[in-house]
């Protein structure tokens, strides 16, 4: 029997997690704090390039046009939003996160890269977006919806702020048919304050009125193994700094979990594109 994750995804818990672990995530991932994407599933090189490739894959699904206003739901420290603004000079981006520290760092990143006139960040909850109805052309949620306690509620909020015809692109994690290491996935979920979908088809019952699924892609083979392999390598390269952040015991547990997840067959990764009707 599959052991289900405890629901630890409260706004306060997620915000505190990212406030306290902000240096840890930037140490391992830099500005793009999410899985990488490798077009060739056999490849696992160039981790920074793969992280940017995942951002570009998600942004590319938006079909952004000049003058568009885009919402980044769960913006982290601003890497994807800044990347979007750099690639599309006429686009404005608004990022939201429940982490106060992430807002500070994201704002500083936008200022350093010269896009602060078109990119802004706010501390806000995806379950209660502080924006007017139909105020964004597109939105994306790169590994953030898995942190909210109610995916349907978050999708309803995104639907509300999107203009008709706007796209919402998100990534999420799910359990695959291979249930052999269920407890490992449960441990990963609890450690990272997230919930894992029961299977790839879960969004069939999660999408609210006003949104239509345009495309759903299983990109597990292009992301999971190589991401966890590279995260371990990045950690070992910065071992002393990681120990200073996590402690010796937690660092070794981190290495063990990531190594196991790289080999595990039951954690999947999906890319979902939805359109506002």
From TrEMBL:
Keywords: Methyltransferase, S-adenosyl-L-methionine, Transferase. SUPFAM superfamilies: S-adenosyl-L-methionine-dependent methyltransferases. InterPro entries: Erg6_SMT_methyltransf (IPR050447), MeTfrase_dom (IPR020803), Methyltransf_25 (IPR041698), SAM-dependent_MTases_sf (IPR029063). It holds the Pfam family Methyltransf_25. It comes from the Bacteria. The keyword Glycosyltransferase does not apply. GO terms for molecular function: methyltransferase activity. Residues 54-244 form the Polyketide synthase-like methyltransferase domain. One of its GO terms (biological process) is methylation. CDD domains: AdoMet_MTases. This is Polyketide synthase-like methyltransferase domain-containing protein. It comes from Actinophytocola xanthii.
